[in-house]
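We were asked to recover a plausible sequence for a given structure. The inputs and outputs are reproduced exactly as logged, with field labels preserved.

PROBLEM: sequence recovery
POSITIONS: 79
GIVEN STRUCTURE:
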């Protein structure tokens, strides 16, 4: 009995199964890589925003200190 064609079909099916599993892994890898890149970019943006906020806080602290001194002088003057 000639069963060579069945062996060929089994090999073809096995190859297709491996390829389809590999495609899923590749897709999952690409999604993970893209998500990793997106998160790294977001971290860079957040670091930049943090730096700007620290600078703003420092500026407002200086302004607040100057205004506090002025208020204290006015309070002393009106006592």
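RECOVERED SEQUENCE:
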């Amino acid at each position: 009995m000639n069963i060579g064609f069945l062996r060929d079909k089994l090999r073809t099916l096995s190859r297709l199964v491996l390829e389809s599993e590999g495609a899923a892994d590749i897709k999952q890898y690409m999604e993970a890589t893209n998500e990793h890149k997106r998160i790294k970019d977001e971290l860079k943006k957040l670091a930049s925003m943090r730096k700007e906020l620290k600078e703003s806080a420092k500026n407002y602290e200086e302004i607040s200190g100057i205004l506090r001194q002025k208020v204290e002088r006015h309070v002393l003057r009106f006592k």
